[in-house]
Amino acid sequence: MAKLKGIILLSSSMAALQIIDTRTDKKVENVHREFNESDINASVFTSEIMRRALEQIHRFQQLLRDYAVIDVQLFGSEALSQVKNAVYFADQIESTTGLRINWLNGNQESYYRQLAVRQSDKLQQNLSLKNNTFVLGMSSSRIDLGYFEKNRFEFSQHSAIGPVRLAQSINDMSVEVAQVTELAEEFINSKLADFWHMLPPFKPTETLVLLGGDAAQNIFLSEQKHWESISKKQIKNVISNLSGMNDQAIIDKYAIDLNDVPFALTEMLLLMNVMNAIAVDEVNISDLTMLDGLSMKDVHDEDDIITAARGIADRYMVEERHREVVLTYAQQLFDRLKKVHHLDKRDRLLLGVVALVHDVGSFINSQRHYQYSEEILSGIDFHGLSTVEQRMIASIARYHSAETPDSALRTVQDFSPQQRLRIAKLAALLRLADALDDSRLQKIDKLTVSVTDKSIKITGQSVADLQLEIYTFDQKAVFFEAVFGLPISLKRKGRRV
After folding, report:
1. How many CB atoms lie within 10 A of CB 205?
2. Where in the chain is the domain with CATH 3.30.420.150?
């Protein structure tokens, strides 16, 4: 018997539903309803917009009942969450439908788009995704560029620049129509200069996949065609037409809505900038969405998020050998103390991320580097992590050294009691993992853990002296005992030669 799951996504442009058979990962239903342009550009949710959105969710719920789907998740896009009265909108949805909306941030949206590409059988069949591939996600206000080598995630980077935001900025300059294309090209180059400067190294590639480009999909895709390979020459021709035509001619030729006409040119120019920067001659335009990624199982999610964390550590020149051994120790302690901490798989992932980036503050100053680590990490977008998880990472990093997350401290007051407890538990584990390499010499070859009702004993097998590690471990163990109620100690066992 099929086990069905329903996923609803609300964005600024549409409401969409997918029903998936979780045993086969096949889509049973895939329906969506586009909103009007007045909805997209609204700064607040009017009562009329709320009414129509709620009606659409009720229709989805009826379809879900017809399929006897009990497992239902509701997600909302980042753009939607930033509408001024989004909190009231979310409350009305929950009170009338019983569904709590999970707000996605831009990094999660990028993550799920990239997942949709990697897991798409159709794209895998038609594109050389086993080679080096860039995936460009484009929304109204940002672009995300992910890079894969032989289907293995390497990095993702974003810029807060998108076709709508670009068009609005150019419009504010009040330029003549004849100057728009030239000015837009110059403006895009200036805004993306640092983006390309900070892009990590990559190997030559011929494959670029575009997701989320509304104008590109309208111009190049039909209802029957879900992806199309488009040359740079074709895009140049479209740019030339958009630059020389009036609005009505553009609408007639490309079937673009009137309100989207100003954004079409900036989207094409933005796409051309990306193609030139990564030296590709074709772009593969796909209608896959983040909803397709949300409905898929990902066996690479932890690896991708850890890889992205390594990229952040590299950017801030965190010592590689220390961060990697702290990662190993942290994961070993987590796995062998499950009966003590009662944390879950997601917590293990967060511990792994923070183990890699906890010392980024040393990039500024090694003194009180833990405070600088929190400041840096608070402003960093982590691939695939929620906004709350990102804030937790920053908080845990702060407490890996001298301070502890006392509930009276301001830095943890914004978290719920459950989140504060998770922060404390993960910080306690990270402190011990960090102490095990306090000398930065990676002395310990093997760890063993012994847990009784009264105490925990960690044994480090090493031919080297561990006096510094034992001293530091004992200091940081005080907080561990306060959190978990059990004393924990480290002793050395000499390795037989």
Report:
1. 17
2. 107-294
| Cβ count within 10 A of residue 14 | 17
Q: Across the strands, what pairs with 228?
A: 285
Residue 333 pLDDT more than 90?
A: yes
Q: What is the tens place of the pLDDT at every residue in 449-463?
A: 999 999 999 999 999
4-104: which CATH number, 3.40.50.1010, 3.90.1640.30, 3.30.420.40, 3.30.390.30?
3.30.420.40
The more confident residue out of 257 and 332 is 332
Every domain range in the chain assigned CATH 1.10.3210.10: 301-493
Judge whether 81 and 93 are in contact, CB under 8 Å: no
CATH 3.30.420.40: which residues of the chain? 4-104
**Spatial CA neighbour of 241 closest among 226, 256, 228, 225:** 256
3-class DSSP state for residue 311?
helix
Rounded-to-integer distance, Cα 436 and Cα 433, Å = 5
CB 115 within 8 A of CB 148: no
Taking CA atoms, 122 is separated from 117, 125, 216, 231, in Å, by 9, 5, 19, 20
Residues of the chain with pLDDT > 70, as a percent, come to: 91
Kindly state the helix (H) or strand (E) to which residue 329 belongs, with its residue range.
helix 320-336
What is the CATH code of the structural domain delimited by 301-493? 1.10.3210.10
CA dist., res. 374 & res. 85, Å (int): 30
Q: What is the arithmetic mean of pLDDT over 114-119?
A: 83
* One-letter amino acid for residue 470 of the chain: I
Which homologous superfamily does the CATH classification assign to the domain defined by 107-294?
Exopolyphosphatase. Domain 2 (3.30.420.150)
> Positive or negative CA dihedral for 67, 70, 75, 81?
positive
Identify whether the C-beta of residue 321 lies closer than 8 Å to the C-beta of residue 442: yes
What is the crossing angle of helices 387-398 and 345-357, to 10°?
A: 50
- The CA-to-CA distance between both ends of the chain, in Å, stands at 58
